[in-house]
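Sample intake sheet
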Amino acid sequence: MNTFAWNITLKWNKAIPSDFEFDYIESLSKTGNKILYIFGETEINSSQELVDFLKDKLGELLNWDISISSEDKIEILPYDYEEGIYELVSFEGEEVDFNEIKQRFEEHEAIFSVREAEVSKRFWNRVIKVDFIY
């Protein structure tokens, strides 16, 4: 089983199917597109397979930012959450370390996940992202 977390932007304010199998938080962008923060566990093994699966399920994805445990370090902290405001903070730098970022934020009550993402264009190491739900 793989853990994943990601945010995506769907074209327009499309309704999410009632049989959608993952937990999510949704909001609208200023342009009227739907933004989803989706998280959970899956038997899917790669980020590309997960993207393809969700394209079939949700339709056109304008952009996405995905982390999956088969490819990235990721930790979703125990999640008792209610619908709220989703925020994302990214850390880049030569000395950025996944475990140090996780330790820095794990006591913060609104933190939801800490995850590796794309390679930094500035420093050439992995960007560490922290997802918050307020």
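Comment: The helical segments are 47-58, 98-105. DSSP finds two helices and eight strands in the chain.
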